[in-house]
Amino acid sequence: MSLAAAAPATESRSASRWPAHRQRAFVFWAALVALLLSFCTVSIMTLVELRNDTWQRAANSARSLALAQSLEISRRFQIYDSVLRSIAQVAGDDAFTQIDWISQQAVLFDGALVDSALADIIVADATGRVRWSRRGGVGAETNISDTPYFQAQRAAIRNGLLISRPLVLHGRAPDMVVAISRGLETRDGSFDGLVTALVRLDLFEHIMTGATLGPNDVVNLVSEDGIFLARSPSLPGIVGRDVSSVPDASLFLSAPPEGFTSRSQFDHIQRIFSAVHLRDMPLLLSVGLSEDDIFASWNRRAQTIGLVLCLLAGMTLFLAFQIRREFRRRIETENTLRSSEEQYRLLADHSTDLIIRLDAEMNRRYVSPAALRFLGYEPDEMLDQNARTLIHSDDWPIVLRITDNARQAVGGTEDCYRLRRRDGSYIWVEGRYSYVPSDGGFIAVLRDITKRRMVEAKLAAAHAELTALVNTDPLTGLSNRRHFDEMLLDLAAKGDGAPVSLLMMDIDRFKLFNDTYGHPEGDRCLRAVAGAMRTAMESENAVPARIGGEEMALILPGRTLAQAQIVAERIRATVEALAIPHAGNETNGAIVTLSIGCAERPCQADVLEPLIGEADQMLYEAKRTGRNRVASRLILRKAQPLPAAPTDHPQREAVERFRVLKLANGRDELDTLAKHVADLLKMPVGFISLYDRNEVELVGRHNITLATSSKDASFCRYAVQAQEPMVVADLSIDPRFAQNPFVTCDRGARFYAAAPMIDPRSGEAIGAVSVCHHQPYYLFGAEERAILSTFARMAMQGMD
């Protein structure tokens, strides 16, 4: 064969191979396009059929409505026609002409139809002179011969009932009427006048308005010559308008039964109309339904179907591309896998990590050469042995857990455990396990982390030491404020409802101690008190802390208030037993003493503020009532109620002097002072009370209407008799006030704070400056007490 003959043969073979390679793709895409086109065709045909069906239903609905409206209007015209016939018959009777005019008027109209739509009924003679009118007031000058409806009847008397164009009744523009007339004949058949009923056009609008229509639908009443008689809804100036020359007028006037579509010349809305002729009358009634309203549902459905078609087409094309790409990828993957196995084994043999292939019974089927460096074993020595033989017995549950996680694909497929070397020592490895579904086995990749574990152990020890330094007060060895706050937050986060108690402690008159003995002795005193706390608390989970200066605290998880009181009393007695000299604390034996406040709350999210607030309040109560004591709600409950002390002579004199000096010119100044202290402390109520002989009088008030109260019910007597500021965070749980009528009443007081007003001349407390709130408040601290005391002194200015 020559080269010239061989070349075409080669091209033919290449061409035959190319179509075979592309043919499958062509068939795939052609079938896909045909499927999409069939979907679109069926959907479009369905939408067209639905649109035609919707149009036909709307046309039928419009025709039904037009027929119903036309029947009602025809019925009314028949009623009016019967009235006209009756009147015409009576007017032509010979006996009728023999009676006087007034009687004639009564005979004609007294029995006539009473209808608000009838503006008038007129009987005129052949010259047009009105002989009788139901409205009365007929005069010689009343003549209707020039009216179109009179001339029409005179020209064609035997035409029967005639309906005129719209007229304005007696010049009143709003009262539009249409004349319905029937001619009168003489015995020889000549024209003898007419009887006419003037019907208000409001009647037709009222009838047409009764139809159930949409906001853009209309009902029209038109004469056969194209004159508008009524429209619903009405438009200004449309009544009486000639529409015979407008586009589509022929459709309206011919009233095709199948209906038609037309755009209104008045509001430019496209509507589906159906028109019917009124029976035996030259009138035509049409109902038009807005195409926008009719096809609104169809349009939404068409848009939805179109969107769904677009989504389906898009998804189909997307899936087709994905399938084609997946086919190509699968072929490429199969080709790649053949070479990957050899490369994988090459990587495993040279990897620094130890790679082990395990079967379903955890027996080794492959071990990489790194085993010799890791464990001192040749890989062949480890084959066909169970993995458990080299794993530390304490760590075997870890391996079982991570293999189960790998099998279930739930995460947590790596962890650290120990492997035994040939020499009997153990190394730490980080194992990552992958499940092989084909045989239920695993591939384990192990990395030696022994050195890393040693570094981590050192870091953990350093971290623990650093944490201890960060959380410890360097002077006393107790927890510091930071650790104290963290422990309270942890307890609140538990939220298990278990009780937690808190002791707040303060060394009595410690500032005087420092001023007298110096700060080095003050530091030794603090360390001694801290040691006494640790000795007396007798609880492993208790957290003693120094939270600032001479203030200390003790957290007692799981302890009730009664148990906390016992611990507090033991700490107080232990500190007192130290007998550290303190010349500034003469009232308590001139030794260092401790005041302690106790509180208890259940562990829950909002425990911190009320727990700390109540403990701080009880600490302040302990200091207020003499120091070197423990205060709590339980102790206050057991204490005897404080009687209302009588006022002595110096106190009465001070009260009277206050009245003369401060109240002589009214109480505006004290009211202003009460408002200022309430605003400054962000309290809704503020008042200044005067502790008089028989009662407590409120001489300055802000947001409170109470003028006086008995001494027994007053809150301020505790501050007055102790001559110390007083704070009660929650009156409802304080035994001294829980049953007080000012607490138990509707919107009663829950928080109260007061500072006594001390007479500078006699030193007697004669009243108090107070604030209160309807909600508990636990953040009233030393700064707020100082502000309250300052206002108490301001209230006493000018008394010295």
From TrEMBL:
<dbReference type="InterPro" id="IPR029787">
    <property type="entry name" value="Nucleotide_cyclase"/>
</dbReference>
<dbReference type="Pfam" id="PF08447">
    <property type="entry name" value="PAS_3"/>
</dbReference>
<dbReference type="GO" id="GO:0043709">
    <property type="term" value="P:cell adhesion involved in single-species biofilm formation"/>
</dbReference>
<feature type="transmembrane region" description="Helical">
    <location>
        <begin position="304"/>
        <end position="323"/>
    </location>
</feature>
<dbReference type="InterPro" id="IPR043128">
    <property type="entry name" value="Rev_trsase/Diguanyl_cyclase"/>
</dbReference>
<keyword id="KW-0812">Transmembrane</keyword>
<feature type="domain" description="GGDEF">
    <location>
        <begin position="498"/>
        <end position="635"/>
    </location>
</feature>
<feature type="domain" description="PAC">
    <location>
        <begin position="413"/>
        <end position="461"/>
    </location>
</feature>
<dbReference type="InterPro" id="IPR001610">
    <property type="entry name" value="PAC"/>
</dbReference>
<dbReference type="InterPro" id="IPR000700">
    <property type="entry name" value="PAS-assoc_C"/>
</dbReference>
<dbReference type="InterPro" id="IPR029016">
    <property type="entry name" value="GAF-like_dom_sf"/>
</dbReference>
<keyword id="KW-0472">Membrane</keyword>
<dbReference type="InterPro" id="IPR000160">
    <property type="entry name" value="GGDEF_dom"/>
</dbReference>
<dbReference type="InterPro" id="IPR000014">
    <property type="entry name" value="PAS"/>
</dbReference>
<dbReference type="InterPro" id="IPR035965">
    <property type="entry name" value="PAS-like_dom_sf"/>
</dbReference>
<dbReference type="GO" id="GO:0005886">
    <property type="term" value="C:plasma membrane"/>
</dbReference>
<feature type="domain" description="PAS">
    <location>
        <begin position="340"/>
        <end position="395"/>
    </location>
</feature>
<feature type="transmembrane region" description="Helical">
    <location>
        <begin position="26"/>
        <end position="48"/>
    </location>
</feature>
<keyword id="KW-1133">Transmembrane helix</keyword>
<dbReference type="InterPro" id="IPR013655">
    <property type="entry name" value="PAS_fold_3"/>
</dbReference>
<dbReference type="InterPro" id="IPR003018">
    <property type="entry name" value="GAF"/>
</dbReference>
<dbReference type="InterPro" id="IPR050469">
    <property type="entry name" value="Diguanylate_Cyclase"/>
</dbReference>
<dbReference type="GO" id="GO:1902201">
    <property type="term" value="P:negative regulation of bacterial-type flagellum-dependent cell motility"/>
</dbReference>
<dbReference type="Pfam" id="PF00990">
    <property type="entry name" value="GGDEF"/>
</dbReference>
<dbReference type="Pfam" id="PF01590">
    <property type="entry name" value="GAF"/>
</dbReference>
<dbReference type="GO" id="GO:0052621">
    <property type="term" value="F:diguanylate cyclase activity"/>
</dbReference>
<protein>
    <recommendedName>
        <fullName>diguanylate cyclase</fullName>
        <ecNumber>2.7.7.65</ecNumber>
    </recommendedName>
</protein>
